[in-house]
Amino acid sequence: MPRSGSFDADFLFALFEVQRLLRLYADKQASKYGLTRTQWAVLAKVDRSEGLKQTEVAEMLEMQPITLTRLIDKLCDSGLIERRSDASDRRVNRLYLTKAARPLMAKLATLRSEITATAFTGFNVSDAHRLVEQLETIKDNVRDALQSANGPTKLKERRYG
To answer: Which of 21, 103, 93 is nearest to 57 (CA)?
Structure first.
């Protein structure tokens, strides 16, 4: 339990600050490979599900399609992603990692593990797993509340790289 102040304010401020710091740290670490955290997220999505449409990636990352198009342009120019026309609809581009991206993805997987290890310094494994489970419960509670407030609209769940 927090030591002082109101629990609801302490919880929200702590959670938002953790998110902000993790984003800053991930950006700094990704820059070692010439990437932004957002480019890394795009690469991770494509790596997990090659052949996604650009519009699908934009929805998953909650980005405007034009913003994603610019990111993909840069990743294509860097030789990390390639666009392929959809066999049934030539207006649609599907995204694939290039062979050149594979070694980078292995390095980024190691980097993800290092960032996680840094964040969980001082935790034992069972406490770390318990925290993740608790955060998943909080996420489910908030998602349920949003769905109740918005009616039958289904919210898309973000999955991070």
So the answer is: 93
- Asked whether 100 and 81 are in contact (CB, 8 A), the reply is no
Of 108, 103, 101, the residue nearest 41 (C-alpha): 108
Quote the CA–CA distance of 151 and 113 in Å, as a whole number. 38
pTM, two decimal places:
0.79
Q: Which tens digit of pLDDT belongs to each residue from 85-99?
A: 988 888 888 999 999
Alpha-carbon distances of 72 from 35, 64, 122, 160, rounded to whole Å: 12, 12, 38, 17
Which CATH number is correct for 7-119, 3.40.1710.10, 3.20.20.240, 1.10.10.10, 1.25.40.10? 1.10.10.10
